[in-house]
Amino acid sequence: MAEQVPKSVLFVCLGNICRSPIAEAVFRKLVTDQKLSDNWRIDSAATSTYEIGNPPDYRGQSCMKKHGIPMNHIARQVRFHSHQLPVLFHCWFHS
């Protein structure tokens, strides 16, 4: 039987401290609740270098905490190598 390759999704926004880490956290929770975490690689990243190394915005953290969704993330810039391209790629350009 062939080994199943995990699907991957990358959520992207400008700074990787608001929209994309929230989307990553929510999607990760949905996948975990469905017991499908072994089938997915889930990540988020920034298109810019503005916020690299920073935690998510406090408002997003507060919202996620209120809904019981864990969000442990440090902003990073997106970098691709041809063998690492995600299957799904979601971008947000307006907040």
UniProtKB/TrEMBL annotation:
It is an enzyme of class 3 (hydrolase). Pfam families: LMWPc (PF01451). One of its GO terms (molecular function) is acid phosphatase activity. Its EC number is 3.1.3.2. The keyword Zinc does not apply. Residues 7-95 form the Phosphotyrosine protein phosphatase I domain. SUPFAM superfamilies: Phosphotyrosine protein phosphatases I. Belongs to the low molecular weight phosphotyrosine protein phosphatase family. This is acid phosphatase. It comes from Canis lupus dingo (dingo). The lineage of its organism: Eukaryota, Metazoa, Chordata, Craniata, Vertebrata. The gene is ACP1.
